[in-house]
């Protein structure tokens, strides 16, 4: 999961939303054949929040990289790191993947179609056939929701209901005196509840569902 920005005719930048840059570069290197492509991993940069910039706009500003997110921007290489960007992105349904979720979630489960971040009929890429089949046949049974937690719990935690591991938390943010998070929840669990806006888990943690995305 990453932001992809064209900074110049011959330069692309990837800002990962979870995972390790070196591992990502090694995975991409396998697909470099005859093209004259060089993959480099720069030193880690502090990530901060900037002024409003149009969504999907990106540019370089000195030694920093600015990624537009609508009512705010993310700045890789900011003078001062902060987490102010996290809460609006959780509310908007922009996931940040914890280590436990890397490689474990398909595109519809984290609402990539809504973000215009996946194509089901363009080209051929690893896993495209499976992703496209699930999309067109409605076979995926897990979807993403924005929730308010009754107490803090680490991002990446798997929660259970009636013994089943049917809730995968992604990023968890403390904001407005509440703990808000993105969670991938099994459709079967949501459909079984009389009131799908509240889920009581086996761990004693309650989830109040405030927003849901089908794709």
Structure description:
With 215 residues, the protein is an alpha+beta fold. It folds into 2 domains: 2-83, no CATH class; 99-213, Elongation Factor Tu (Ef-tu), domain 3, CATH 2.40.30. The chain has 4 helices and 12 strands; from the N terminus they run ββαββββααββββαββ. The strands form 3 sheets. Strands 8-9-10-7-12-11 form a 6-stranded antiparallel beta sheet. A hairpin with a 2-residue loop joins β9 (164-175) and β10. The chain is globular and about 55 Å long.
The assigned structural class equals alpha+beta
Number of helices: 4
| Radius of gyration over C-alpha positions, nearest whole angstrom | 18 Å
Distance between termini? 16 Å
CATH architecture of the largest domain: Beta Barrel
Task: Give helix % range.
Answer: 10-25%
The H/E string reads EEHEEEEHHEEEEHEE
Number of structurally distinct domains: 2
Main β-sheet description: 6 strands, antiparallel
Determine the mean pLDDT.
91
Sheet with the most strands: spatial strand order = 8-9-10-7-12-11
CATH class of the largest domain: Mainly Beta
Brief account:
The chain has 215 residues and is α+β, with helices and mostly antiparallel strands.
Detail the topology: elements first, then pairings.
Blueprint: E1 2-8, E2 11-16, H1 21-29, E3 47-50, E4 58-61, E5 64-68, E6 73-76, H2 86-92, H3 128-137, E7 142-149, E8 158-161, E9 164-175, E10 178-186, H4 187-192, E11 198-200, E12 206-213
Antiparallel strand pairs: 1-2, 3-6, 4-5, 5-6, 7-10, 7-12, 8-9, 9-10, 11-12
Keywords:
215 residues; six-stranded antiparallel beta sheet; Elongation Factor Tu (Ef-tu), domain 3; 12 strands; alpha+beta; four-stranded antiparallel beta sheet; 2 domains; 34% strand
């Amino acid at each position: 999961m990453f932001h992809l920005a064209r900074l110049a005719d011959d330069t692309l930048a990837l800002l990962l939303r979870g995972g390790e840059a070196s591992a990502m570069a090694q995975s991409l290197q396998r697909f470099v054949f005859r093209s004259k492509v060089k993959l480099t991993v720069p030193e880690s940069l502090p990530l901060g929040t900037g002024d409003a910039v149009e969504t999907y706009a990106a540019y370089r500003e000195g030694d920093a990289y600015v990624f537009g997110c609508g009512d705010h921007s993310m700045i890789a290489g900011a003078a001062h790191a902060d987490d102010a960007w996290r809460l609006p992105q959780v509310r908007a349904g922009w996931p940040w993947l914890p280590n436990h979720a890397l490689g474990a979630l398909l595109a519809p489960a984290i609402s990539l179609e809504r973000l215009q971040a996946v194509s089901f009929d363009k080209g051929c890429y690893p896993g495209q056939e499976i992703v496209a089949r699930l999309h067109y046949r409605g076979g995926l049974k897990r979807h993403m929701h924005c929730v308010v937690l009754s107490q803090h719990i680490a991002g990446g935690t798997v929660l259970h209901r009636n013994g089943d591991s049917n809730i995968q938390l992604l990023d968890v943010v403390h904001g407005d005196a509440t703990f808000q998070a993105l969670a991938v929840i099994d459709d079967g669990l949501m459909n079984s509840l009389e009131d799908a806006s509240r889920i009581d888990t086996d761990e004693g943690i309650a989830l109040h569902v405030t927003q849901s995305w089908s794709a």
